[in-house]
Amino acid sequence: MKIEYQRGDIFKSPYRFILHGCNARGVMGAGFALQVKKMYPYAYKEYINNYEKKGLTLGETQFVKCRDRTIINSITQQFYGKDGRRYVSYDAVANSMRMVEECLYGETIAMPKIGAGLAGGDWNVIESIIESELKTVRPIVFTLD
C-alpha cells in the first residue's frame, strides 16, 4: 500500500498503532526509540524483558499495548552506532512488515522513517519494502516540522 506522509508530532496524532525500529541489543538510547522509551515506558519494559529472557532477533515484532495505543517494537537492526554505517537490515524490515500485515489486517499504522536515520538505511529502499509488504495496512510516515 502506498505510504501517506504527514508532518508533525506522531505522538500527538490520533493513530492507535505506532511502529518504530529497534536494535537487538536491548538499548533505546537515541533517536525515535529514546522518545518511545520516555513516553511509553511499558513498551521499553517489554522490550527489555524479551531481551533479557531470550534475546531479540532481527525481524521480531513486539506489539505492546500502552494506555490508548499500541507501540510496535520492530527489531530492524542487530547493532547500532552513530558513525554513518548502515545498521538496518532490509530483510528485517520486510519480515516486520509481513508480521504487521498479518496481525493488523486493514488497520492504519504510524511510523517515522524507520531505518533511515541513525540506522543509516536508504529511505527509497525502505519505502519500497514497506509499500510492497503492506497490502491492507495503511502506513502513515511522519516527518518532523
Can you describe this structure in just a few lines?
The protein has helices at about 30-40, 40-55, 90-105, 125-135; strands at about 5, 15-25, 60-65, 70-75, 110, 140-145.
Name of the level-1 CATH class: Alpha Beta
Strands side by side in the biggest sheet: 1-6-5-2-4-3
Order of helices and strands: EEHHEEHEHE
Strand content: 15-25%
Total DSSP E strands? 6
Note poorly predicted spans.
none
Number of helices: 4
What do we call the CATH topology? Leucine Aminopeptidase, subunit E, domain 1
Describe the fold and architecture.
This protein has helices spanning about 30-40, 40-55, 90-105, 125-135, and strands at about 5, 15-25, 60-65, 70-75, 110, 140-145. It has about 140 residues and is α/β, with parallel strands linked by helices. It has a single domain (about 5-145), classed as Leucine Aminopeptidase, subunit E, domain 1 (3-Layer(aba) Sandwich). The chain has a six-stranded mixed beta sheet with strand order 1-6-5-2-4-3, sandwiched between helices. Strand 5 (about 110), helix 4 (about 125-135) and strand 6 (about 140-145) form a beta-alpha-beta unit. The longest helix is centred in the N-terminal third of the chain and has 14 residues, at about 40-55. The chain is globular and about 35 Å long. The two termini are about 25 Å apart.
What would the keywords be for this entry?
Leucine Aminopeptidase, subunit E, domain 1; six-stranded mixed sheet; 145 residues; alpha/beta
